[in-house]
Amino acid sequence: MDVQKAPTLDRRVIAAAAPILRKLVDEVADNRAAVIFSDSSGAIVESLGDKAVLRALDRAGAAPGHLLAEAAAGTNGIGTALHAGCGIQVVGAEHFIEAFQMFSCTCFPVRDPFTGEICASLDVTVRAIDHRPDIYEYVRTAAREIEESLHALLIADQMSLIQHYLAITTQGDVAVLATNGETIVANRRALNLLQGMDREIVINRLFAEGSRPDVGEIVELETRGALKLIVRIQRVVDEYGKRGVVAILEPHIKLGKATTAMPASATPPLPELIGRSPAFVAAVAKARRSASEPGLLLIAGEPGTGKATLAITVGAQSALTMTVVDAITGITQTYPASPSGHQNVSSSSRLQYAVTVILRLENLREEDVASCPALKKALQKEGLVIATTRSPSRILPALRKAASAVICLPRLEERTDDIPRLAQWYLLNRQRRLTIDQDALALLQRMNYEENVRSLFSVLEAAAEKARGFRVTRDDIIAVVGDNVPTRRGMIEELSVRAVRDALAMTGGNRSAAARVLGISRATLYRWLKHFGEDLGAAPAP
What pLDDT is stored for residue 354 in this prediction? Predict the structure, then answer.
């Protein structure tokens, strides 16, 4: 089937690929090869190399402007590599279209270094009689070089956006946001303001307005709520035609028919904690509500679940001053305002007394309580103490009984949907900033973490040290944890192991009797024994 389609490829990708394509043509010249570059749909953008092979490809329907997606051309190097998302070789009769069966095609997808999505493909085609397996390495290396070159171009693009952003921020104490649709740069005032609005709606509208050539200097954006923004826009256009926008945000709030200006500092949100799972969001919301009143607030959870982060964050937003005490080391630190990295809020929204955060309250003794003025005030509802503990049952009974609220943070295995966000946040906030591919994220979501987020970050740090390029891959993760990746066993599997173990113990190891007790066939029991043999402490079934 001969299908034609005009290729669509970002000019940055073309610029990043051009010198590498020419170099690859020289490297495979002795193989009488053609180098083919296509967009993410499989539409051929450019073909270079041996003229005889190019003429044969043209006659077969594989010239620039032709579509080689699997849906259009069946199994072929370009279409199959894009469909599978990995490098592939299709040789001779493996091609679906008969005209392609005279060729051997080796293709690798090219991924956007920031989003991880496929943006192009790189293929080297030779005649089937000239097939060589080592061409696979040439193509893989060249595809990675294109990704690295594209990464450098995108970094330059981000820097251009940042420079425009900095030029605006020097004009005064204003809320400034810059975006090109992919990257967002904002100062604290802008973030503080957008927390109280439909953030995604505002950012999407800003980029859409700033991308239109007929837009005026000032636009008015309104969300689903009562707030609206008057936005002064400065458009940014780079050498590749990529549009962006730098905007000064002036917040307003509706009061009947009139509109009155409202300072950005009047919308004081909590700093965003990383996680959107229902259990985690509910715990954060409960902590926020409970910290608005005096008393003793307990935050419980296993090591690495984020107890201290939540306690300090809530404390910094709840009062004019905050004291953090470590119950083990005795180290005390007082913050006259919110800690660095947290957003400032207006004094009218804070409690008019100091907040004390006690880390590891389970180590507090009776005599320590007697000598702690903050605890005494909290128990008398005259002050606020936020304390962390592994388990509420491990603290002094009097304190446990007096607690006004207890928040239990979920284990990481109970919020695996948050693992990609945590991983990406950690890698982007290291001194050497990295991204992570989807295969690595999928593997991280299946792993077991004894110390929750702390263990996750340890794995990521070790993998980042092993990463050769700008992205952490699945291979980097395996290099850290080994081939026997410690994975979580699902609840059903856990219950199955327990049931089989109990049945075998009840029947003295008689497998036929155990199968009857479980209400399953002997064949099913044998399959379970084979699968769970190591967990059951028994030899797998023969």
Answer: 76
